[in-house]
Amino acid sequence: MISEYLTEKEHPAGPLQRLDPRAKIIGLISFTVVVVSTPARAIWVFAVYAAVVTFLIGLSRLRVGYVLRRALVVVPFVIVVAIFLPFFGRSGSGGYSLGISHMSAGGLLVLWNVGAKAILGVLSMILLASTTPFPDMLAGFRRLRVPQVFVLVVSFMYRYSFVFAEELRRMQRAVAARNFRGRWLWNVPILGRVLGSLFLRSYSRGERIYVAMISRGYEGTIGLSSPAVFGWSEALFLGLLIAVAVAVRVVASV
Amino acid sequence: MALQGLSFSIQRGESVAIIGPNGAGKSTLLLHLNGILRGEGPIRIFGLPLEERTLREIRRKVGVVFQDPDDQLFLTSVAQDVAFGPSNMGLSKPEIEERVREALAAVGMSGFQDRSTHLLSFGEKKRVATATVLAMWPDILVLDEPTSNLDPKARRQLINILANLPVTKIIVTHDLPVAYEMCNRAIILSKGRIAADGPIEEVLTDQDLLEANDLELPYGFAIPPAGIPGWSGTSRTRSLSRDAEDELTEHVAGLNHLVGDPRL
Fold this sequence. Notes:
- Chain A is mainly alpha-helical and 254 residues long.
- Chain A folds into two domains: 8-132 and 228-253, no CATH class; 145-215, no CATH class.
- Chain A is built from eleven helices and two strands.
- In chain A, helix 3 packs parallel to helix 11 (232-253).
- The model of chain A is unreliable at 1-5 (pLDDT under 50).
- Chain B has a domain at 15-70 and 141-243 and 250-255: 3-Layer(aba) Sandwich (Rossmann fold), CATH 3.40.50.300.
- Chain B has helices at 26-33, 55-61, 69-72, 78-88, 93-106, 122-134, 152-164, 176-182, 200-205, 207-212, 232-243, 248-253, 255-259; strands at 15-19, 44-45, 48-49, 62-65, 140-144, 168-173, 185-190, 193-199.
- Residues 228-264 of chain B have low confidence and may be disordered.
- The chains are: A mainly alpha (254), B alpha/beta (264).
- Chains A and B meet through helix 8, helix 9 and helix 10 of A and helix 2, helix 3 and helix 4 of B.
């Protein structure tokens, strides 16, 4: 499960893949911010945003199925909004009546607003994550002066999520091999113990990692070097992306 | 496990196996070698008293490869992890890159620089973990159970690589065939004390000694009689480690030529 989200097998070569991670981080995060700040009524503007994202996804040769599968993470959020839809703006004009519930135009606009922005934001982040190997992305954040502590915490989380996922899987198998089936409420204590022992293992692994680190002379800082350079293609990508988004956004609010 | 009155000296170029049953104090000893544990009495390593002031120097000289490579390799890419030690030593960027390249070549992992650590096989992780320590050019390489959990092929590869590294080695293990193949001297540790210290042939052929210390050669494994060249790995290992009297750095710099064969 975790490995499906974090593996780097999904990195076909492409022009976006070659860019300095800093350009992609700044570019796609700014793009998302501009998208989120756009008024929901300007529907054609969202079409332009969608075209830009689709173009970039095509340019990076990402597989459509893969992108869509990962984009599914927005579904729960949109559903939550949809559930509360009948309670939004009852008094508004327009909208539809479905038996006992009434969807107002204002309510639908809220749903559109959340849905469109969530999808575009998620697609931008998928684009960023799928064209940038994780270590490069961390190096990019480090070069953007994100404090080392944060970058290291994320780096450790990434590195050891695989180890802990594997440990958890082994423990689950060992429990299942002795005919445990976590089905009923009274099975919960066992699951709690599995998690507790996973925590203890992680804790002692943390200690071992630290011992190995100081054995190699660790004194509090880690120099993560990355050979990336910010050149013309980075400037071009960043300039075009932000210019298009901002231009469309400004026209929309005029 | 408490250690008491341990003292032994190791010559340059020697390969020493520290063997003993679980709980004999092997790991405790290992953690004292580079000052992770300090104990109560005074400890001297390379003639240096083990204290805050000398810690940096001692940890540079004594390179420890831990048993679980997942503990050692904590960064996301292979190159970053191998560069970690050298960069802690304050080396310049080109120097660090050179050492990374060299250390990876020495363990037959050239070209793996940009690979993600977590995608490596267990045997590959073990080799990279060794490279992370080699890149610091240690005067002595301490290996904790280097062959545990490896399949026969990965085990053979690692043994060949380690045996050919012209570095002084301490190998902590209870894999006696590995100890025999890679070392010329064995120290048996038992209940926190040295129970025996001598040429490995003598220690491993002393049936009573092994039994008294809860050790046993695997069934069917026999030490070839002295004078007759043993199987391939043995004689080569011996001559190499005995010749390795030269300046260590020169050897490490020449590692590529010695073990550059990627099929190892």
